[in-house]
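Hi support team,

I'm opening this ticket because the web form for multi-chain structure prediction keeps timing out on my end. I have pasted the exact lines I submitted so you can reproduce it. The total is 656 residues across two entries, so I didn't expect it to be a heavy job. Is there a limit I'm missing, or should I split the entries? Thanks in advance, R.K.
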Amino acid sequence: MKIKRDQVTGLVLIILGIVFAVLISQFKKPFTPEYPGPMLLPGIGVFGLIVCGAGIMVNGFRQKSEDKTFVTKAGWVRMLITFAILCVYIFAMKYLGFLIVTPFVLFGITTYFSAGSGVKTKLWVNIVFSVAVSLFIWFMYVKLFSMTLPTGILFE
Amino acid sequence: MLEHLPYILSQFIVPMNLVLLIVGTFVGIIFGAIPGLSGTMAVMLFMPLTYTMDSGAAIIFLLALWIGGCSGAFIGSVLLGIPGSASAVSTCWDGHPMAKKGQAGKALAIGMTASFMGTFFSALVAGLLAEVVADFAFAMGPWEYTALCLVAMTMVLAISKGNMFKGLASTCIGLMLASVGYSPIDAEPRFVFGNMYLMSGLGMIVVLTGIFAVSHIVVTFGKGFDPTPEVSREGLKGFGLGPKDILEELPNIIRSFLIGLGIGFLPGMGSGLSNLVAYSSAKNASKHPEEYGHGAAGGIWAPEVANNASIGGAMIPMAALGIPGDSTTALLIGALTIHGLEMGPMVFANSGNVVYLMFFTVMVVALVVLIMQSFGKRWFPYILKVPSHYMYPALLIICLASAYVDSGSLYKCGMMMVFCAVGILMEFGGLPASPLILSFILGPIMEKNMLRAFQYSGTWTSFFTRPVSGVLMVIAIICVFSPVLKALLGKLKKTPADKA
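Hello R.K., no limit was hit. The queue was backed up. Here is the completed structure from your submission:
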């Protein structure tokens, strides 16, 4: 029998609910019917997660039709690579700052997105776009609205 | 109300505010028009830009983004047959067929005029009624506020399609995320794990942009971008609408306006529902219902008047009670809090000028949108042809810049990526994002009021014994169980013959 998406979702929610229930039980201020204290909001959340998780799981067991494909394997790889690029971008900004890293990352993502969606783009267009957009965003935040963007540890 | 007029006018003679108004409206229209983006996303992404502005400029900019986004949503519906956002779903049903008949110009003109009427007059009504509602709200205690928050969160569930548990699970995730940091009243650290970045909570921009925007872009790329659409520019010359067309549809316009205003006023409901209700009401009331779905003008007037009338409707509980009418007003409440404006009945006494600036700004933006769309109609097809492989990377960079600006720390950018992963998993599991937005913003308000109520009365029964909160609690319970009740009623209605 193929595992349904709802079964996985339900199980994850139940596990999350149990983990948070354990964490809530460690709060110092006790829960009393007269005054529930800090356990109140997360308590409602945990109760809901477990009940809804169970409900979604039961629905998954009752579901007769096959799940529609969420994303193909190639799609998951594309998502994972995009996610990784953004994580590396954040890490690189810490050392090199927004203005140096962003054009390269933007060029990388633009080129990757166009290749990933089967669109042919010109190299110089991507370069001009990446530099122009990076400068525009930097100008908008830093100069126009007097905010700070990462300057990079190496350049501080 | 009139005593605030000098302040309001003083805001509109500041050149920078006018620039923000025009730029915000323009950006909002683009976000509204492009399927996959929305006015809500525009408000979310550009909210950190307002941190250094004074409250007047911030309100003008954020409202311009919101109204522009709401009013631009019909463009994709008419020209592509794909709604720019949920608020323009039913506009597709007649807008696109009319465009395919070579009357795209007329369909767009109806959309523009209807959007203007809905927004302008609903903001006018909101301006007149909000203070009256606020006077009633003074009689409300923490019990009533708690119940109102619950109604707002559960009403979204009542209208959510498909699995009720999924909507409720999304609400609960929002509540869990809202719990992070020091608890109200008792100041107990919750889920902070000794991390100083978590002490003050997770931060609205980091959570919502990660779950709502970044994950959406990553998943859209994973699923594969839709090819850039071919959009006909035929029939886009001239305004395409006369006074006779408006008069013919006047009953439909008034009915749809009242539906939009009423649904917008209900906490948790918004334009996503009002356009559908108004469309079906217009079809039922029409002498020629068979024309609906084949390019009937009434089928464009109804949803567009209603979804924009929901704006004014949503602003009433937002200003008078501090309870959002929909997910965008939830964001706006958060943004205004950052500017020191606590929405609720006291806001009229403390910052009445700013509240009336809000209503006035919406009316001005409605006019600016109409002018911009009237003159820019022939360029609408180009907006829809913006290539995804350029637009989405730029938006990703803006998302991360927003997270950094919001907190001044790259740590929060990393946290945004964590919430991007949460958003991807939620989309994988089919959990909707709107209930999470509402519960994440309403959760702390509800908790604070609930704890106060317990401090005053010492028992949970007081939520049911006070008349107003009792009624609201019953409504909230009905909303939670409404899908089950609907299914049960459906089964009961089936005759034995049907069952056989």
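A quick check on our side: Residues 137 and 143 of chain A are 10 Å apart (CA to CA). Let us know if the file doesn't open in your viewer.
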